[in-house]
Amino acid sequence: LHMAPTVETLEAILAHMKAHWTSDLDEQDFSCQFFHALFEITDEDGSGGLDATELQGIMEKLGSPMTDHDAMLAIAQYDLDSSGTIENFEFVELMKSHVRFQAFGSKHSLAGLDPNRFALRDAATGQIWHIPIEGRLEIHFVYEREAVLGMHDAKNRITDAGIAQLIRNINLQAKSPAEKLEMLYFAINESEILFSASQAYELLEQCGGLNKEVRVAAVSHALFQVITAKDAQRLVSTTLNLRERAKLKVDLGNAYAVIMGNPTAHFALDLVNRADRWVARKLVESAQTEKKMSIASKRGDTSQHMNWENFRNETLDGEKFVLTTSFFNSLPQCGHLEFDYALSHRRYEQLVKELAKDCVFIDIPDGAGQPAAPLDPVAKAKQRWKKLRDYVRHNQFLNMLNYARSHIFRIKNCREEVRLKLVQIETAVSDRYLTAEQASRIVMSMPSGFHGRVEAARVLFARLIDVGNFCEIFDLLDREDQSELVKSLGWLNIFNPEKPDRFYELDLSVLEDYNMAKILIRLAVIEEGDNWLDGYTYSPTRDEAPYPHWILPASWDADDTGKGEGPRRTGILRLVFTSKLEDGCIPDWDARREIKNRVLCGP
């Protein structure tokens, strides 16, 4: 690991690791457990986070001292939740990067780097091949594009040694910061060089890309080669302030949402434009990964066309068609492609656990009914400080929103003001996760005109850690905005069977609406009481009047086997669903939990 810990530190780490020791531990698992144990024995106050001073103390114990500047830079780069400290899993990522840097990227390792390490060699003899000084040389260069195996496949990125050599080559050739940056752009643009956030930061720092005058443009170039959305988020949050992020969003256009991992948006792509073609190809990588994850999730298909794709409302040159990932294998050279895209992946449980900071802290004494051991004054002071810090963190976001409501969100109800505010929201949350309650405050701070609230809700949809509560945001909107949001996201991505009470308008000719109708019909049949309030209607078409005195046929609850059972395949169904006891309804919670498997907020 390129470290020299003291014997006492090493013994303490290994003693802590024994609790989780397994016989099949490999090198990677060992290093991860090593860093987790190091974090836990260092976090003596149990705060769950390390500040810059504590981080310097750790590195000192490991025989790898860190300056104040390096410690603050590390906190800024790996503090994903902006708490001012780095938590356990963030610390592990920091230490992995530190180990790689010590091995390949530090000044010490570069000083001893063999200049012939990357030299061309004769395949037969293994000797270094030198370019002849005379004669005619004919070269056949064979290039095969490496398929991207996955959105998070780190094996596709360049090695730290490769980054070090690239920096070395640029420094040898360029004479000024401007030349260094120009050479960097030439080297990476439209190339197969993919790198992590820390590698991108190192490249920009060494090549003058972090200077204020060129920072936004330099980061923009680097983002196209960053391997994952998480790395893109880290790079942007580390290098740019909010104003610069907004400029970056405007400069990148359609590409911003895709690069930053939140492509839940409306796309209008000109297939003649090279940048738009890049967006299309990059988006299909995400779409293919999402499709596989959705199928493997064991929940129902929530797509518009019941094909597990996240593309919605697609048109090509104004004509409706069904867009799939296979379409991008032979992308037309021209045409106007327009569609909505809705992310379908869920926050993993461990991510929710790490990121959900809205908690209530309660003192629970050790032992059943046994009085807790008295604490010494120092321990009491630490405990009180921890509670105070947790309380401040808990209320920090709410305080920010209150300020935003009174200052930031005083905007005119005009198109340009709404568009500007949406850009600011998207850039501010691109590397943050929120609860539905927090997101609702942002959405309702927007003006209702020009679809301000709808677009804000769409931007925030994929940043929620509790997507099952998104329906609460939906219920705050008026009918017109709800209709727009359903069109862009889809009922099966919004709906939560445990909170179904609202108005529905379903077009049974659309597969997802048809499946949504089957869910509501099923609940109406199995639950006690009349869940559908009086006044529900069915119309043959959207323009025709509803059938008078229409009653839900019992046959509509049957499975659709193609023999006439189930709901009709055409027509408009309108209803208001209720679960209230005062309306005589008794929810069947077991059935609702089972139905949850058929929507996005399920397993």
Automatic annotation (TrEMBL):
CDD domains tied to this protein: EFh
Keyword Calcium: yes
Xref: PROSITE patterns: EF_HAND_1 (PS00018), EF_HAND_2 (PS50222)
Gene3D superfamilies in alphabetical order: EF-hand
Keyword Calcium applies: yes
GO molecular function: calcium ion binding
Sequence ranges assigned to domain EF-hand in this UniProt record: 30-65, 66-101
Protein name stated in the entry: EF-hand domain-containing protein
Organism: Aphanomyces astaci (Crayfish plague agent)
